[in-house]
Amino acid sequence: MRDFLALTAPNVQVSVSSGVPQPGEQGVLDTLAVAGSTGALAAAINVLPHFLKARRSGITIKATVKGKPFTLTATNVDEVMPIINKILDA
Which long-range contacts (CB under 8 A, 24 or more apart) does 32-40 make? Predict the structure, then answer.
């Protein structure tokens, strides 16, 4: 998210604060602090839907093309489509 904001809302300052697990916890969340002018913060908020759309849950495709089975796993559909198109055009 920090890198995404740096590219899409360059006038926003983003800092990361790493979480610390408490006894008995297995994981923690990192926190992003976002600072900037009203316009810069509005720009950062406006790009959030694009970031979330790009972070769709992972997918796995199992198929057989020309008699050869394969499995393709990815975390973003946009990453998979060029590969699928290339396989189908081959």
Answer: 32/1, 32/2, 32/5, 34/5, 36/9, 36/11, 36/12, 37/11, 39/11, 40/9, 40/11, 40/12
